[in-house]
Amino acid sequence: MIRIGICGGTFDPFHNGHLTLITSALDSGRIDSILVIPAGTPPHKMSEPVMPAIYRYEMTRKSLRDVAHTEVTELEILKEGRSYTLDTVMMVKAKYHDDVEISLVYGSDIINDLEKWHEPAALLAECKMLLAVRGGDDHERVKQEADRLSKKFNTIIDLFAAPQIELSSTELREKIISGTKWQKLVPKGAESVISHNGFYSLLKYYQKLTENDRIKLASLEREIWPYLNHKRMIHSANVMLYSLMLADLHDVDLMQAATAGLLHDCAKCLPHDELIGYAQTAGDDLLLEDDLAHGPAGAVMARDLFGVTDPAVLRSIHYHTTGCSDMTRLDKIIFLADKIELGRTYDDLDPIREAAVSNLNRAMLLCLSEVEAYLRRSSKLSHPYALAAVDSLR
Ligand SMILES: [Fe+2]
Ligand SMILES: [Fe+2]
């Protein structure tokens, strides 16, 4: 029988406290491996916004890449509706045909709340608990409580020693946003995901969305997840946040911008035939080439698979690769955010980023001329839609 620990959390961000909890649990010898489960965005009252799942998943995955006996799973991210720990435990048990002993791994502070959890008796009938006792904890009291609850629920609540790491995710996010010495507080993997994509710096725009809208976006993120690889998911979330910022600055509907930004590349990873099939449905013969077809194909997918009915959103997805004549502010925002989101590392993005803050048309012209120069270097011609965009912007 294999002994598996389960460690869940929002991991927003994944930090050194999480890492030492996981490694100490493995070092305790009470489990053979540990399954780490970033939470999906819970579809109920969230006290504060939780960043898109792909960031939290990638920070966790990259931080644990070199830690033996760990596995990061998308189980809860991909689950529709609220995830209860009991459901997760049962899914893991089913995967191992019940030939598994599961321990939930937490800090010992949860011991005070355990009886208030959703159906603790049913949960603890299916698994054990493995709780970290840290330097500052009252060992004697934790031990007494663990014994009392073990008896009450007829389970085993084991304790293990872990180093004391005082880290609040809220404070850590604030440090990241203000750029004050945060890099050593998170594992290298998380640091690179945060530094490369800069998403916490755009958190304040994400916070401007209503809770309902964030829940809608989280469920769209879950729906497109199976269609995209992780890199493309990160880019999509980056475009969503950058679009939100530009929408806020230029008085465009935030939810239209976020939706189009998140979905703009939803067709990008489709197998070729499927991609062209969707693109043909859109009926735009000028956008059927390999690099361009995912625009119209994405708009069709957004409408037919993900329930987007707003024509303005669909149009901005359709034309996001080339631009077009008479672009709306939303079209420009999606076009630009795609090219200059914070994860992009092309040369000469700064002037476009600066222009985009104050003048979308100027940013568009700069960006289109960069694209044209790039095409010229590859001996390609500008697309007729891009030329039309330049004409109408002038
Ligand atoms: Fe694209
Ligand atoms: Fe894109």
Describe this entry's structure for a reader.
The chain has helices spanning 16-27, 53-64, 85-95, 120-124, 139-153, 169-178, 188-197, 203-206, 211-224, 230-249, 254-263, 272-282, 294-304, 311-318, 329-340, 349-358, 360-377, 384-393; strands at residues 2-9, 33-38, 70-72, 100-107, 128-133, 157-161. The relative contact order is 0.09. The chain contains 18 helices and 6 strands. Strands 3-2-1-4-5-6 form a 6-stranded parallel beta sheet, with helices on both faces. With 394 residues, the protein is of the alpha/beta class. The chain folds into 2 domains: 2-184, Rossmann fold; 201-393, Hypothetical protein af1432, CATH 1.10.3210.10. Strand 2, helix 2 (53-64) and strand 3 form a beta-alpha-beta unit. 52% of the residues lie in helices and 9% in strands. Bound molecules: fe (ii) ion (2 copies). Residues 264-265, 268, 294, 320-321, 338 line the site of one fe (ii) ion.
